[in-house]
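Q: I have 163 residues here and want to know how they pack in 3D. Can you give me a structure?
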Amino acid sequence: MYNFYTVKGKSSFPLLIAMLALPQLVGLANILIIGDDVNIYNSIAKPSFAPPPYYFAPIWIFLYLLMGYASYRIALFYNNQNHKNAYTIYLLQLFLNFLWPILFFEYALYEAALIEIMILAVLIFFCVMSFNELDSLAGVVMVPYLAWVIFATILNYFIFILN
């Protein structure tokens, strides 16, 4: 049985709040940068399996909470090289997560966004693996994020082809 707040006898409420907030702030920054450009999703050709636009905000809020929680579990042990490497991968993928909507929505660079999201998916995979080696729960809670980004990659591919 896992203790969701304490990891190997360590816990930190301020760290938990900070780690939960970081990905949410990334999402908020995207909203502020992109603004109404997100509405491009309504006007572009999409495959039949494309979800309606109102699905995205709740899904991302949930995924960002999972990411933040997983990073909290790893950040508690940011004191050796394996943890530092895992956290570095996490921060790199978080940066690419921030970049993708700008490429896709702000600049409508569907091909560049596709290449970028493929790199993002690979980084998330490595993040899941490195988190899992250190803390299995941290690895597991990152899996829905990986699955969603793989789906988004497929969606991005078809949007690129159709537009």
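Q: Anything worth noting?
A: DSSP finds six helices and no strands in the chain. Residues 47 and 152 are 12 Å apart (CA to CA).
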